[in-house]
Amino acid sequence: MNKNISDIVKSIPMKNVTLFMALLVLGLLFLGREGIANRFSGQNLAQVAGSTYPTKTYKLTVNTVGKGSVGLSTGSSIGSNSSKTYTFNKGSSVYLVATRSTTTYFKQWSGACSGNSITCTVTMDSDKTVSANFNSTDNVCKRESIDSARERILNNGNISPEQRQQQMQNLDDSLIYFGCTW
Fold this sequence. Notes:
- By secondary structure, this protein is an alpha+beta fold.
- It has helices spanning 5-11, 14-40, 45-48, 143-154, 161-178, and strands at 57-65, 68-72, 77-78, 83-89, 93-100, 104-111, 119-123, 128-136.
- The chain folds into three domains: 5-48, no CATH class; 57-136, no CATH class; 143-178, no CATH class.
- Strand 2 and strand 3 (77-78) form a beta hairpin.
- The protein is elongated, with a radius of gyration of 33 Å.
């Protein structure tokens, strides 16, 4: 026997319809439309009852490769040849600064950051890993290597005196950057 919806509604006693409507209105007042939908789709009762949904968090793993450190905008830092995982709220921006030791230079970021600037900002929209890579200045600061580079610049007949002067200045600037002293 097939009944249409109007026949079913007509067969429900009025006091039951009134009670159902009152409960529906109370539910809308206290929980909102989404709250009722969530309640009936199996969501956590504490969430449906109006408590704050837990904030989504993501993990940021920071690695240092070589001698150097990374400071975070939170005030934390991680030392040489280390790995540490931090937890941040979804949408957080984390500012990182790579700091070389006296015997290394900062080479580059890898993972969630890239490039060779000593700073990087990571936006936490998923779990991420970032590595700061440091290289030794041992080969850069060897007196023989520097003398050889100067000799190549001075003996290069294919460049103008201005270019030669600029290349020598670039070499000197690099030695200062890498912390080479004798």
